[in-house]
């Protein structure tokens, strides 16, 4: 296809680029429709976060999927960027917050031990002037205490507009809403923001933990990050724990929380409930 295009001096798009462009237009239109329909095509999966002592589940991370009527299950890496660029992330993000509230109340009603639910927030959402107010309104409407939900932001997202960010973080802190830095160590920010920003948790990116036990560089970075977090009085979660070996290594380093496929993939609400109530989880 691109060979044919190459024969024409006036063709700028290769076939592949054109396919990608058409696919993203299709997704954007589909997302707009999905938002109009009230979010029925979206689903939240929940991935357990494990306490390293005792291996109890102390939290989970809500991860969105989109069940496209024709394409099927679309992963977030395929559509979050499109949602961010089109502004649709604002209503989608509100749907996520509300859905998490509904889920928390369902689990409470079913008598599950309460876990903190983490929600991913894009910088486009965080920078929206009404973000904190809208977040608080939804939790009040749904009658969910603020300390049941934690927000995850990437370093890059937090660095975009430092003055505004500091104000938003202070407003969240005043209301007792906790923040975790997601994908820690992969951004292009300096470490100095850690003493300025009032965050509670660092999530070590999975790129450092995947081959942790075979890679000296990863070992050095992960060891230093856990130390740094401890010295600053922050909580740490290691993401991307895929093997028993890596989980043991992290426990020996004193990493208090672990998340990854070794413990569980992200689960549908029904499977999450089964996972948390299974005999081995007690
Ligand atoms: P993230 O927040 O860093 O989430 C972790 C991703 O790593 C998830 O991918 C999860 O399924 C995957 N993961 C967890 N454990 C392992 C492991 O042991 N090995 C490997 N290889 N992967 C693991 P997922 O669900 O595809 O989400 C991708 C990204 O999409 C998320 O990265 C987050 O940045 C974004 N995202 C997901 N849900 C939302 C949402 O509701 N709102 C926003 N704004 N972004 C979201
Ligand atoms: Mg996350
Ligand atoms: Mg992450
Ligand atoms: Mg990420």
From TrEMBL:
<protein>
    <recommendedName>
        <fullName>EAL domain-containing protein</fullName>
    </recommendedName>
</protein>
<feature type="domain" description="EAL">
    <location>
        <begin position="24"/>
        <end position="280"/>
    </location>
</feature>
